[in-house]
Fold:
Amino acid sequence: MEKINTEKIVGYWKATAERDYETMFGLFEIKRYPESLFFGHIVLEKILKGLVVQETKKQAPYIHDLTRLSELAKCDLAEEESKILDSVNKFNLRCRYPDYKLKFYNLCDLKYAKENLNEIKKLYKKLCQELKRKMK
Structure:
C-alpha cells in the first residue's frame, strides 16, 4: 500500500477550498447565483475531502456526494447540518445537467442564493475548525 503525505494533501484540499470560497462570493457579487451555489458545493466538497484524508490517511475518493464524504470523514454533524449537505448536493447535479439547469436558474434569485450561501458559509467555517482540530 502506497504511503501518502497526509499533511501535503490536506493542505491542497484546504487551500483550494479557500480559493473557491472567495470565488463563490465573487460570483454572488456579480449576480451569478446558480454558479455561486455550484461553487458552494465545490467548497464543501473540498474541505470534506481534506477531512477524509486526515481521518483515513488515504487519498479522498472520486465522489461528489457531500453526505458520503462527511460519513467517511467521521464528521460530527447535527441533523440540520446533514440536511444542509443533502440540499447542497443538489447544486452540483442541477448545475451540470441541461434538463435541470433552466429550473435551477429560475429558482436562484437573490434571496434563495443568499440564504443558501449563508448556510454554506456557516458549515464551511465549522468544517475548517474541525480540520484544524484534527490536524493537531
About this structure: The CA atoms of residues 48 and 70 lie 6 Å apart. The chain is about 80% helix and 0% strand.
